[in-house]
Amino acid sequence: MFIPYSTDAPIYYWPAATVGLIAVNVLAFLAMMVAVQSPEGVEAVVPYVLHLGSGIYPWQWLTANFLHADLLHLAGNMLGLWTFGLVVEGKVGWGWFLGIYLGLGVVVLAVTQILSLGMAENYGLGASGIVYGLMAIGLVWAPENEVSCFTILWFRLFFFEIRIWIFAVIYLVIQLVIVMLSGLTLGSEAVHLMGLVLGAVVGVLMLRQDWVDCENWDVFSVWAGRHTMSPEELEALEPGPIPKSREEVLHEIHEVLAEGRVELALTVHRRMAGSLPDWRLPEPDLRRLIQGCLRTKRRADAVTLMVEYLRTYQEQAVAVRLKLAEVLLVDEQRPAQARRVLAKLADERLTPPQRQRRRLLDKRAGAMVAEGALDIETEDW
């Protein structure tokens, strides 16, 4: 068996909820270890684990997710939570992620306890149903990204990387085989399969509702080959805009920007610019769209939008021009164009920090030109 511990999936939100949930799981495990050493012993913990075959206890649908049988059980689940938490929370942020985590846990354990009615009494605990659900969401949202794993063979530790879809399929097959060999009993593998199915449903639903931006690297886009298409090819595939008033479109862009859905806002803006000659975004929304492109590492789009800003607005022209020069230098390797951008900044209009930043950028551009870095073409921005 191999254990995941990291991923190369892009992370747009710091994994605050993932870290917090790992901390809660660890603290719950320590509290359980203390409780079983008390005079009450194991009986102190029994009300909080999942009772199977003996009734319905809704609070256990939550509490049992945070309890683990031993240190290896805890470590395996927390490594899985960390890895696939990065994938999922990295795309939707802590609020959505927390809802997904708790929702997966409650639904999977509720179904498990209901299905166990009439069976022999037993107990269940652990976050593995949730981890398998997160893995399924990772399969839907980022199949081509990789997870870093380790395994132990012949008392030696081996590290390797594997694509998320391959990792998920391997674990799916393993769980299916064990469930079939066990005679379809309601064991931990069946719980894992329920987590996988529920996670896949959640991942597809959020994708179809456009609640998550996978930048054409989701399983459907990869299957259709959109992840290898150029922006122009992707735009050609988009359906034509639904006729709306200018005010409705501006409100829509404002709303999706407030939700952090940069790609959708950018697509709508481009469509409107192509169909209305006098179209332009309000200055605050254009700045927000530029910031969103920079945050999500859409540097080429950010350059285009900053040029648009400089040709349309003056409110923050100095700050935008300095940022444009920086992106041209650092990301585009275009020092001559960066110097043309900086040349339009008059020192008397700059604050001392801006003047210092301009000098440093110009000095860096000059050094790059001296080292032989030349633009094929420069434009008047």
Gist?
This protein is mainly alpha-helical.
Question: What does the model show?
Answer:
The chain has helices spanning 16-36, 60-63, 71-115, 128-141, 164-181, 188-208, 219-224, 231-237, 246-258, 262-275, 283-295, 299-312, 317-330, 335-343, 352-370, and strands at 3-7, 50-52, 122-124, 146-153, 156-163. It is mainly α. The chain has three domains: 3-221, Rhomboid-like fold (Up-down Bundle), CATH 1.20.1540.10; 229-315, no CATH class; 325-381, no CATH class. Strands 1-4-5 form a three-stranded antiparallel sheet. A hairpin with a 2-residue loop joins strand 4 (146-153) and strand 5 (156-163). Helix 11 runs antiparallel to helix 12 (299-312). The longest helix has 45 residues, at 71-115. The chain is elongated and about 80 Å long.
As for the CATH topology of the largest domain, it is: Rhomboid-like fold
Give the biggest sheet.
3 strands, antiparallel
- Architecture (CATH level 2) name of the largest domain: Up-down Bundle
Which stretches are low in confidence, meaning pLDDT under 50 for 5 or more residues running? none
Keywords:
381 residues, mainly alpha, Rhomboid-like fold, 3-stranded antiparallel sheet, two-stranded antiparallel sheet
Task: Present the secondary structure layout.
Blueprint: E1 3-7, H1 16-36, E2 50-52, H2 60-63, H3 71-115, E3 122-124, H4 128-141, E4 146-153, E5 156-163, H5 164-181, H6 188-208, H7 219-224, H8 231-237, H9 246-258, H10 262-275, H11 283-295, H12 299-312, H13 317-330, H14 335-343, H15 352-370
Antiparallel strand pairs: 1-4, 2-3, 4-5
Helix pairs in contact: 1-3, 3-4, 3-6, 4-6, 5-6, 9-10, 11-12, 12-13, 13-14, 13-15, 14-15
